[in-house]
Amino acid sequence: MERSEHIYVRSNRLILRQFSQQDVDSFYLYRSSPEVATFQSWENYQYHDAELFVRKQSKCVPDQPGTWFQFAIALVETNQLIGDCALHTLLGEPRIVEIGFTLAEEHQGNGYASEAVRALLSYVFTGLRKHKVIAFADVRNEKSIRLLERVGMRREGQLLENYMSKGQWVDEYQYSLLQSEWEHSVKRGL
Ligand SMILES: CC(C)(COP(=O)(O)OP(=O)(O)OC[C@H]1O[C@@H](n2cnc3c(N)ncnc32)[C@H](O)[C@@H]1OP(=O)(O)O)[C@@H](O)C(=O)NCCC(=O)NCCS
C-alpha cells in the first residue's frame, strides 16, 4: 500500500499516522463490530459514519485544545490500518491530555495496542511536553484495564455512574501518568 500520509510516531512494528481515504473500509469493518463497540459510546455504526470520520480526521492536526485527534495505527510492513488511538487535549488545561484506543478484533492479543499506546505516550511527553495523561475505562473492560496497567498507568480512582453506555450508567476507572512518572519508568527501562 502506498504511504504518503504524515507519520507522527514509529515503533518496532507500527506507525501512528494521519488517517487517509484508503482507510475507510478497514476502519468501518472494525468500528461496526459489536465486540469492539461493547464498552464504547457508539452502536449500529454505519459506513457513512466511517466516511465522515476519515474525511474529518484526514484534515485535523493533533493537540488543538478542546478537540480529539485520532491517530491511525498501521503495520510498518504493509501500512494496513489495524486500529486507532485518540488524543484529547483538554480545553481548560491543555497541558493535560486524555487518550483512548481501539484495535480491530483480529489484531488483538499481539501486543499491538500496548506498543501503540507506548509510542503515543512517548510522543505526548517527549514531543508535546505534556504534564499528565489520563484515560478512562469502563470497570467491566478487562482488556482495556490490563493494557493501561501494562503501559504503566496508575489507577487514580473509581468514578461512580460517570458514563452513559448504551442506556445504562456505568462506573469508570480513571488512570493517569505524570510526565515525571513516565521519565522515571523510561529510565528504569519499563
Ligand atoms: C482494549 C484493546 C485495545 C486491548 O487490545 P489487546 O490486543 O488486548 O492489548 P495489547 O496490545 O496490550 O495485547 C496484550 C495481549 O497480547 C499478548 N501478546 C501476544 N504477543 C505479544 C507481544 N509480542 N507483545 C506483547 N503482548 C503480546 C499478551 O499476552 C496479551 O494477552 P492477554 O491480554 O491475554 O494477557 C482491545 O481489546 C480493544 O480494541 N477493545 C475494544 C475497544 C475498547 O474497548 N477500547 C478501550 C476504550 S477505553
From TrEMBL:
The terms under GO molecular function for this entry are: acyltransferase activity, transferring groups other than amino-acyl groups
- List the Pfam families: Acetyltransf_3
PROSITE patterns of this UniProt entry? GNAT
Which parts of the sequence belong to the N-acetyltransferase domain?
14-180
Key words, A-Z: Transferase
Q: What is this protein's name?
A: RimJ/RimL family protein N-acetyltransferase
